[in-house]
């Protein structure tokens, strides 16, 4: 990684503030209970555009940067908490302090980064020390525009998990791109984001330090690698489930989550373990509700008999449907207690091995067009997490795996994994 970092030059930093000042009535953004239980990690995502299309291909790099900075300023008016300052674990002072925007030059072609299946090479396109960092002292949202010597660019985004879940990050990025393509569209966004999660999940005053949902980021080195499942391999995995399970219509997320969990357990040589996932609460919450609006849930494995694929899929479906039913039948004032119960089962499950799988499948992450076309590649590298996402053509699933180095060595060589998944760049 040190040799790769030497390729970065001409780092420039700016502070981008909201185009319009945040109204006094919105200056204090209360964190919801679901915000409170999330850690301060900055969640990373990067969009690669190998060659800018149409008139952008001949424009100087500073014009591209100014284009992004102006549209970012406008979208921050709608996503004002991102430009604020966190006040302990209670609220955000939406003081329009702004966000950090870095611009760099990278002295290599983009293909050198994209063609390597080890996604940690992508760190070169992120602000130094920000991705996966706890309690970063800078802004709640950090951006970097990277110019490669081949003419391509990468746009990376790191948002504090205190303010945004994956759904919010995806909506923010698409709204930013919408404004970039059409500067007049800031007044006619597809939907007006609402940061009102606290009205559904009121914050609590108790000490949450023992129940905060923190990923286990040990000091050991991590390796991040991508694997892809083609549509034919997904069909084959689903056939395994359908033939031996009551679940007759397993989703891509369910079958890939179950398979990855099964192979991770096998290669780590553990049986007693827990798989942790989250349920998007939109609905019952409105689709334009931003922030953290996902509820954790988990399944447990206690012996080898529970490690077969159909059984894992069945347990995942049951746990998800039971949690969804609880929220559907509850009154809003019962939401926090349901989330607390689910969180306690996740945090205090007594398992020696915890696996975390998150999914952005069906999110429009490959639709992000700032005016020069859609991205060739999108990557979200998270340590100690398996991130599921659609492939570019939406005809398969990509899994970005973040494991400790010794665990990755075993995982990437697993014969059954490689029967269905291919290392991808």
TrEMBL record:
Pfam families xref list: Transferase
Top-level taxon in the UniProt lineage: Eukaryota
InterPro entries xrefs: CAT-like_dom_sf
Keywords assigned by UniProt, alphabetized: Acyltransferase, Transferase
Molecular function in Gene Ontology: acyltransferase activity
Bilayer-crossing regions: none
UniProt family annotation: Belongs to the plant acyltransferase family.
PANTHER family cross-referenced by the UniProt entry: ACYLSUGAR ACYLTRANSFERASE 3-LIKE, F21J9.9
Stated name of the protein: Acylsucrose acyltransferase 2
The species this protein was found in: Solanum commersonii (Commerson's wild potato)
Taxonomic path: Eukaryota, Viridiplantae, Streptophyta, Embryophyta, Tracheophyta
């Amino acid at each position: 990684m040190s040799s790769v970092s030497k390729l970065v030059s001409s780092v420039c930093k700016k502070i981008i503030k909201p185009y319009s000042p945040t109204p006094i009535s919105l200056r204090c953004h209360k964190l919801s209970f679901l915000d409170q239980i999330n850690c301060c990690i900055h969640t990373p995502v990067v969009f690669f555009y190998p060659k800018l299309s149409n008139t952008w291909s001949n424009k100087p790099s500073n014009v591209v940067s100014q284009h992004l900075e102006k549209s970012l300023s406008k979208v921050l008016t709608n996503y004002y908490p991102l430009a604020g300052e966190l006040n302990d674990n209670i609220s955000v002072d939406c003081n329009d302090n702004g966000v950090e925007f870095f611009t760099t030059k990278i002295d290599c072609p983009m293909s050198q980064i994209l063609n390597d299946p080890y996604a940690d090479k992508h760190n070169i396109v992120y602000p130094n020390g920000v991705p996966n960092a706890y309690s970063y002292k800078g802004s709640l949202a950090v951006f970097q525009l990277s110019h490669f010597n081949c003419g391509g660019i990468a746009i990376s985004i790191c948002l504090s998990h205190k303010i945004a879940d994956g759904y919010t990050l995806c909506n923010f990025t698409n709204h930013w791109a919408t404004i970039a393509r059409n500067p007049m569209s800031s007044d006619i966004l597809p939907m007006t984001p609402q940061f009102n999660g606290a009205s559904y999940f009121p914050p609590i005053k108790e000490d949450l330090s023992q129940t905060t949902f923190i990923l286990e980021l040990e000091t050991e080195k991590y390796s991040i690698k991508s694997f892809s499942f083609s549509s034919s391999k997904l069909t084959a995995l689903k056939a395994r489930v359908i033939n031996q399970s009551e679940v007759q219509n397993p989703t891509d997320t369910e079958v890939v989550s179950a398979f990855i969990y099964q192979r991770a357990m096998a290669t780590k040589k553990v049986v007693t373990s827990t798989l942790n996932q989250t349920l998007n609460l939109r609905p019952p919450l409105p689709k334009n509700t931003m922030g953290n609006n996902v509820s954790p849930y988990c399944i447990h494995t206690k012996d080898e008999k529970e490690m077969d694929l159909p059984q894992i899929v069945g347990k995942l479906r049951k746990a998800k449907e039971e949690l969804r039913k609880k929220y559907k039948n509850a009154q809003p004032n019962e939401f926090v207690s349901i989330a607390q119960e689910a969180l306690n089962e996740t945090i205090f499950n007594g398992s020696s091995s915890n696996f975390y799988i998150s999914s952005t499948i069906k999110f429009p992450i490959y639709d992000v067009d700032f005016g020069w076309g859609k991205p060739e590649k999108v990557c979200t590298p998270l340590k100690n997490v398996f991130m599921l996402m659609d492939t570019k053509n939406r005809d398969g699933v990509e899994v970005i795996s973040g494991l400790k180095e010794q665990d990755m060595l075993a995982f990437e060589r697993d014969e059954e994994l490689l029967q269905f998944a291919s290392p991808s760049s």
